[in-house]
Amino acid sequence: MAETPTLFEITPSSESWHTRRRVGFDLETTSRDPRVARIVSAALVIFDDTEGGAGTEYGAEAGALESPTPQGQRVRTREWLVDPGVEIPAETTAIHGISTEYAQANGQPAAEAVAQITTALAQEFAAGSAVVVMNAPYDFTVLQQEALRHGVEFTEPVGVIDPLVIDKQVDKYRRGKRTLTQMCLHYEVELEAAHSATPDAWAAVEVACAQAERFPQLQIPAPELHRLQAGWKIGQSADLQEYLRRTRPDAVVSPAWPV
């Protein structure tokens, strides 16, 4: 396999992902462990600068909302509130604000919601959209496991942009946490109501675009950047595993990305 080029060996392209259709995706769940987590809420936030748009279209009947931005961008959102079918732990309710009782009273059945989410994402993958997901392995693993749980087809993600993987590559030695909240501060992106699916998905797109503006080498087509991130994640996981094994000899960090 060819060696993954370093950031400054990449030549920017006029076909950059960040000037085309961009779709933020985020989940709020019942657990930090993606293998057992159940979806409580989900959001797709679609930024489309092209006339008439491209990719899948979300009408009012699908629960989509459209709103302009100060920059004149066309932004649509689609949200799901989900009854996960299990108790939502108090510690996760404290993070995203959704209780078991509220989800049961107002949420869609999990199987129905998971089918809609996977279908919407599959349409975006097929359309060539850049799908922006902060810490993509978590969200896609949760969705993959939910799809298996409910007998729903899961489409392999393509064209994924992960601001966390990118940040670790372009600014490897920066001190401090790399949570979405901290990255919003670093890249001067406004984040309202952190740990809610729609604001988090929206902010992830804004952070990723800010990264592309700050580092023009990231201005390439989404499939190419997807491939590069997969290589970067392998190196990042190896570095973290080596560090952890100084005190935990059996530590294992998965290099899998985006799922």
From TrEMBL:
This is DNA polymerase-3 subunit epsilon. One of its GO terms (molecular function) is nucleic acid binding. InterPro entries: Ribonucl_H, RNaseH-like_sf, RNaseH_sf. Residues 21-217 form the Exonuclease domain. The keyword Nucleotide-binding does not apply. Signal peptide: none annotated. The keyword Hydrolase applies. GO terms for cellular component: cytosol. Keywords: Exonuclease, Hydrolase, Nuclease. It comes from the Bacteria. Pfam families: RNase_T.
